[in-house]
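Encode chain A's predicted structure.
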Amino acid sequence: MRGNFLLLTILLISLISALALNEEESNNNGTKESLLENKAVQFVKIKDDLNRTIYLRGIPERIVSLAPSNTEMLFALGAGDKVVGVTSYCDYPPEAREKEIVGGFLDLNLEKIVSLNPDLVLAFGDLQLEYVNRLEELGFKVVVFNPKDLNGIYRNILTLGKILGREEKAVEIISEMKGEITKLRKKEIKERKVLVLLSWEPLYVVGKGTFLDNLLEELGIENLAEEKGYYVMSPEELISIDPPVILFLGGRETIESPLREKLTAFREGKVFYLDPDLTTRPGPRIVLGAKEIAKALDP
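Encoded structure for chain A:
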């Protein structure tokens, strides 16, 4: 009897051990499958222009762009098919106009953005922070670009290339841009001192520390604005500076003002009206804006 009990005990122990081994193997296989799944999901770590570290899971497939420069970068990188929403100002390339409109630059339609269910929203600058905060509260991933110079533009293109898994294309674009800027830097430009206006009433000026100021510096041109950032200049200050050249980026309208008679640039026909889309958007086409500036100053 004791022999039968011992045999039965050994059989039970063997059965339990076998079951435990099978369960452990099953668990191990499940763990391995889980690890393989995790390895299949790529997490991208980037830092945006608000100095925030952001982790993105996989390559985004539904992107909303809240600025023309962001939209132009996306299309330049070959990701136009991933763009599902843009602002009313996003008009280049022409295909961008076919996308859903989510509002203007500062009057965005939050409900429209949410309805598009983006896995990435590309915002711009400090003025959209309210929308950035609200979208993040709703669980959306938001990356903010706000370049202060050409290197900042290059960095944004490279960051977006990393996000999209298109770093090689980003490097190619940046290399071409740098090459064109180098050529322009070597060009002999007659006029080396300018004032850049975004509007005439009020006198909205491109000041120091902006990406346009840096672009002028790269071309060997002095920006006569004395304050930092974009600011309103008084008519008295404008007369006092009396710039030999004015670059006007506010459109092709003819400026009518009593100040015309008091400014050298008007008297000598050196007020140049440049394309604001090329000169004020910190994206790949800023090189074309640089060419316009160089051509105006050395026709």
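The chain has eleven helices and 13 strands.
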